[in-house]
Write a structure and sequence with these properties.
The protein is mostly beta strands and 123 residues long. It contains no helices and eleven strands. Strands 2, 4, 5, 6, 9, 10 and 11 form a seven-stranded mixed beta sheet that branches. It has a four-stranded antiparallel beta sheet with strand order 1-3-8-7, with no helix packed on it.
Length: 123
C-alpha cells in the first residue's frame, strides 16, 4: 500500500511557474512508476507526465512537452512536477498516482491516487 499526498498548487498568472510535490508513504516507493494526471471541470482525467522507478525514463503528454518536468527523489519518497510557462488551459486539479513497474497513460491502470491539488492559471 502507498499513500500519496500532493501539495504546491495555487493561483498563478499566465506565463508563471509552479512546482507540485507528491509525498509517498508506505512500502515500496522505489519500485513504483509515478505519474501526474489532471482533471479540468467537465473533462475526463488525463495523463500529464510519468517517470519510472529509477528516474531514467520520463513521458509527457504533447501539450506540456518543453514546459513541464517530472522528477523524483527516492530518498525522500517524493515526486515533483515543475510547471513553467503556464497557460489558462493548464487549469485543473492535479493528481499524483503510482503503479507497479511501467508508466502507462491509461488512468484505470494506476493503482494508487492522491487527493489532488488545484492549479488555477488566470490573470
Amino acid at each position: 500500500q502507498v499513500q500519496l499526498v500532493e501539495s504546491g498548487g495555487g493561483l498563478v498568472q499566465p506565463g508563471g511557474s509552479l512546482r507540485l510535490s507528491c509525498a509517498a508513504s508506505g512500502r515500496g516507493f522505489t519500485s513504483y512508476a509515478m505519474g501526474w494526471f489532471r482533471q479540468a471541470p467537465g473533462k475526463e482525467r488525463e495523463f500529464v507526465a510519468g517517470i519510472i522507478w529509477s528516474g531514467d525514463i520520463t513521458s509527457y503528454t504533447d501539450s506540456v512537452k518543453g514546459r513541464f518536468t517530472i522528477s523524483r527523489d527516492n530518498a525522500k519518497a517524493t515526486v515533483y512536477l515543475q510547471m513553467n510557462s503556464l497557460k489558462p488551459e493548464d487549469t485543473a486539479v492535479y493528481y499524483c498516482a503510482a503503479r507497479s513497474f511501467l508508466v502507462v497513460r491509461t488512468t484505470d491502470e494506476w493503482h494508487y491516487w492522491g487527493q489532488g491539488t488545484q492549479v488555477t492559471v488566470s490573470s
